[in-house]
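Appendix B: a complete holo record

For completeness, this appendix reproduces one full record from the ligand-bound portion of the collection. The bound molecule is 2-acetamido-2-deoxy-beta-D-glucopyranose. The inputs are the chain sequence and the ligand SMILES; the output is the full three-dimensional arrangement of the complex, encoded as structure tokens. No fields have been trimmed.
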Amino acid sequence: MHHWTISIAICLLTSLSCATTALQAVRSSPARAFITAASTSTAKFSITQVKNPNWKPYSLSTTDVYAAPFLKHKKPMPAPLRAAWNQSRLRGKSYQGSLAARNDGQLVNGSDGLYVYLTKIGTPAQNLHLGFDTGAGDFWVWSWLLPAYMLENRIYYNGSNSTSASQWSGQSFGVSYGLGSTYGLVWQDTVWVDSIGVSGNPIECIQNIAEFFVSTLTAVDGFLGLSNAYNDSESPVPQQTWMSYVMPHLAEPVFTASLVQDGPGTMEFGFINSSRYTGNISYSPVTIIPGSGGGFWAFNWTGFAIGSEKFNYTNIQVMTDTGGTIVNLPRSIAQNYFAQVNGSTVASDGTWSFPCTSQLPSFTFGVGKSGRMVVPGKHMVFGPLSDGVRCLAALQEVDESQYVYMTLPFLQALFVVHDYGAMQMGFANRPPTMEN
Ligand SMILES: *[C@@H]1O[C@H](CO)[C@@H](O)[C@H](O)[C@H]1NC(C)=O
Ligand SMILES: *[C@@H]1O[C@H](CO)[C@@H](O)[C@H](O)[C@H]1NC(C)=O
Ligand SMILES: *[C@@H]1O[C@H](CO)[C@@H](O)[C@H](O)[C@H]1NC(C)=O
Ligand SMILES: *[C@@H]1O[C@H](CO)[C@@H](O)[C@H](O)[C@H]1NC(C)=O
Ligand SMILES: *[C@@H]1O[C@H](CO)[C@@H](O)[C@H](O)[C@H]1NC(C)=O
Ligand SMILES: *[C@@H]1O[C@H](CO)[C@@H](O)[C@H](O)[C@H]1NC(C)=O
Ligand SMILES: *[C@@H]1O[C@H](CO)[C@@H](O)[C@H](O)[C@H]1NC(C)=O
Ligand SMILES: *[C@@H]1O[C@H](CO)[C@@H](O)[C@H](O)[C@H]1NC(C)=O
Ligand SMILES: *[C@@H]1O[C@H](CO)[C@@H](O)[C@H](O)[C@H]1NC(C)=O
Ligand SMILES: *[C@@H]1O[C@H](CO)[C@@H](O)[C@H](O)[C@H]1NC(C)=O
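The structure of the chain with 2-acetamido-2-deoxy-beta-D-glucopyranose bound, as generated:
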């Protein structure tokens, strides 16, 4: 047990080399094939989330919630967060709800993974609940290759129990994700997402995973990456995303997200459903986040407004990510926002919170010349803190020069188009009845 824990720690530092020590002879993968009842050049799919039956509430420290995007995207933490994060690492697993929070720190319940997409893998089909993550490119699942205790009360993929499965010998993967890493072997099997079927789809089967995920991803059985990435983390033969494979069969090379706060959202592949938004869609070209090598769904907004304030024309780069739960705004914008929230304060780890009863202004951002996307104030709440009085803000600050990081709290208010054809992102408002 102790040996095993130590070896994870080493693997977390060098997750790729850990995963690849098991490399055998390389062979090329069996071809992937698109298998669906729909016409294969004009396919359109609408996929609605389901509530994962295994989801359980779990507590996180505010420091861990705030740190997650910085770790996932390897961006510099603001100084107070860096100090709090270092201190919490020294103290051990601060993210486990059973441990006391920092001196003036607090705990907050996470809701990641409550709504997920049902995915069927193998023959006979094994039902897994996957997060669809536009900020990552890998397709990995909880698998039978994990130590038995990590499989307790879990749904996982078992390749040995599928007649259509085979191991891709020599192929492995390693991902550094949020608050930890995961790595494992690659198998190939048939995958159905609603009525989109792909045979021979590479499936990253995890063999080990950071403890953080064991306690927090209580019901996310894996992730399907939908980033704009070129290559995923597989080695020695990097793979392209599931979407890049499915795309040639779609009526149009697009997918859209109509996500919902506290409710099942929908993603649509191959078409733009005009009944899911109001007004016009405003488009902006995909931009490259400096230092990232590209591969993200990023664009430049043309300005912003807080509440009923005048629109401030300021061109700022924005990374979007459906795999994130905190929105990061450059410090001056975040501080202007919280200046309008009664009783808002910053804790020593740098997290903003406010009395849960405070009124919250809306946030508007500009797309193109005249597009104005309005995110209502109720989207700015991450959740109640353990004192029962205050709420952690879903908006948190980053250093002034950083890009805006736009995740679920904003995306759940809007209709979002990911357009590979014109390499652009589109945004439109949704009627209030559609964003609950
Ligand atoms: C946090 O830890 C890192 C790595 O150990 C170190 O480089 C950095 O100086 C520390 N920062 C603070 C604010 O303690
Ligand atoms: C995986 O499936 C095989 C074949 O049914 C079975 O023998 C094995 O116990 C399963 N492993 C796990 C961890 O469920
Ligand atoms: C393996 O598949 C059989 C047939 O579908 C099923 O009854 C059994 O529960 C599965 N076992 C595991 C460990 O997944
Ligand atoms: C993707 O992987 C291929 C095959 O290993 C490699 O030739 C190519 O340079 C990689 N592309 C990028 C953008 O990393
Ligand atoms: C378009 O969206 C509406 C809901 O706004 C839904 O009822 C309809 O089924 C969707 N159309 C398609 C083709 O999926
Ligand atoms: C949508 O775009 C058209 C053409 O550019 C314009 O005439 C119309 O006013 C726009 N509608 C809205 C609601 O902005
Ligand atoms: C996007 O904004 C960044 C500043 O955040 C700027 O450096 C870059 O040139 C802009 N790119 C485009 C295409 O406007
Ligand atoms: C517009 O926003 C920028 C960035 O936060 C800020 O520096 C500037 O002062 C703002 N301008 C006005 C008029 O509020
Ligand atoms: C802030 O508090 C003041 C005084 O209690 C009150 O008048 C005002 O309406 C509050 N504003 C908001 C936005 O809640
Ligand atoms: C988190 O949820 C559990 C179960 O509903 C509850 O007992 C606990 O008090 C909650 N924690 C916080 C910080 O809200």
